[in-house]
């Protein structure tokens, strides 16, 4: 994110750009894996909205929290948002879903705590925007919470109910 903090720089840095080829490869891999899980559960539109809102939100929080001389590149906030959303939308009492949540949840919690520790312990985050990681995860959790509170008027409006019918 450019230090000017313009809307363009806040949203542009949600796209997979980075200074390191390994970081880019890692972000693309995780966007593919966790994005696919979100898309399977909630649909294409929800995936795009989740990606954009968690990425732009994390970049906005980074812009507000970090020194003005900071420059942030990459989609880490969106990646961590998709991590969190993919785990939370999988939660149900079906034993297969519980197993998925346990496996994915352990990974997501470890990564979020690692980012939080790196930010709070060192104060410096070794040129990794851990503020974006943590805020992307929190924004993802908030999105799932807010969307779960939206009442659906009928089963026709509920994407999960429609998907269950289509599977039969």
UniProtKB/TrEMBL annotation:
It comes from the Eukaryota. It is a multi-pass membrane protein. Residues 22-149 form the Peptidase S54 rhomboid domain. The chain crosses the membrane at residues 45-65, 71-89. The keyword Oxidoreductase does not apply. It is found in: Membrane. InterPro entries: Peptidase_S54_rhomboid_dom, Rhomboid-like_sf. The keyword Transmembrane helix applies. Its main location: membrane. GO terms for cellular component: membrane. Keywords: Membrane, Transmembrane, Transmembrane helix. GO terms for molecular function: serine-type endopeptidase activity. Belongs to the peptidase S54 family. This is Peptidase S54 rhomboid domain-containing protein. It comes from Zea mays (Maize).
């Amino acid at each position: 994110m450019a230090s000017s903090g313009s809307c363009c720089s806040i949203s542009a840095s949600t796209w997979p750009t980075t200074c390191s080829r390994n970081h880019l490869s890692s972000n693309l891999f995780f966007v593919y894996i966790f994005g696919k899980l979100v898309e399977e559960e909630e649909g294409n539109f929800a995936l795009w909205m989740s990606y954009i809102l968690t990425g732009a939100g994390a970049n906005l929080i980074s812009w507000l929290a970090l020194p003005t001389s900071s420059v942030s590149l990459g989609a880490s906030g969106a990646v961590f948002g998709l991590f969190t959303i993919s785990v939370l939308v999988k939660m149900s009492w079906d034993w297969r879903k519980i197993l998925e949540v346990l496996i994915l949840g352990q990974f997501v919690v470890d990564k979020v705590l690692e980012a939080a520790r790196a930010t709070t312990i060192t104060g410096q985050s070794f040129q990794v925007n851990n503020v974006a990681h943590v805020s992307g995860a929190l924004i993802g959790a908030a999105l799932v919470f807010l969307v779960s509170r939206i009442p659906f008027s009928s089963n026709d409006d509920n994407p999960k109910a429609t998907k269950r019918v289509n599977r039969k």
